[in-house]
Amino acid sequence: MRQSFTTVLVGPSELLREGLIRILEAEKFRILSSAASVYDLLQKPLSQQRPILLIIDLDAPDEDAGFTQIADFKAVYASSHVVALGEHCRSNDVVSAFRAGADAYLTKVAARETFIKALELVMLGQTVLPAETSTCIQEIRLDVKTIAATEPANVRYETESGETERSVLSNREKTILRCLIGGESNKTIARKINIAEATVKAHVKAILRKIRVRNRTQAAVWAMNHDVLTPESGSGPLPSHDPQELIEAQKGYHSRMLHPM
After folding, report:
1. Are residues 158 and 254 in the same domain?
2. For residue 45, is the peptide bond before it cis, meaning its omega torsion is within 30 degrees of 0?
3. Contact 136, 173 (CB under 8 A)
4. Measured between alpha carbons, how far is 38 from 9 in angstroms, rounded to an integer?
5. pLDDT-based confidence at residue 18 (cuts at 50, 70, 90)
6. How far is it, in rounded angstroms, from Cα 241 to Cα 220?
7. I want to staple 200 with a disulfide (CB 3.0 to 4.6 A). Which of 132, 177, 186, 257 is the partner?
8. Is residue 139 part of a domain?
9. Which residue has the higher pLDDT, 245 or 60?
10. What global pTM score does this model have?
11. Is 97 exposed, middle or buried (0-12, 13-18, 19+ CB in 10 A)?
């Protein structure tokens, strides 16, 4: 398995890359290239005789730069496997890495044996998360992976009935959509269901994408129009959105139904 992949390493620290190369070569990995950034690798085509395993260090002055590099690399080598290395296990970083296209997120404090085992799992097509990451992040990753794989060819949006959109919403997304109907903020939702605010934000983005609306108000209108959800008991009056905002959202929603993008 280790020899069947070609491994490339990316990161601003040459010392870290050299250390990883020594470890990987001792474990019989086939090292193809090492560079400070993905864009250095993309200067010339990489051999694709074997599948590519990219290991990328996210440590950079601009914290979003690493995620952008992952997305740009996947845009060129869509079938590649990507392992992201971070200094800390922060939920928003984990979500951002996976949404960019990573298959694993590991912290640099991982033991050598754990690191090698994680690489093997990734090469087998598995998703790997740090042990300290909450289970809700895993739900997000699996949901993103499923939608990304099925949406272009297999998911058909039946905009008049809403049945298909409804079927792809996870239980947690349905709970959050109930909160959106009530006009609750991400912070309020996070406190209510005991998850990180960044996780709520990621779920809301997934909901908007799945039901094909532009904002949270349109999402609330969509849910009410299709009688998909009702507020949970004790959640207060429905809705708490500004009435004019709902009217405008309703117009925009129906316009989109008549003229889908």
Report:
1. yes
2. no
3. no
4. 9
5. very high
6. 9
7. 186
8. no
9. 60
10. 0.54
11. buried
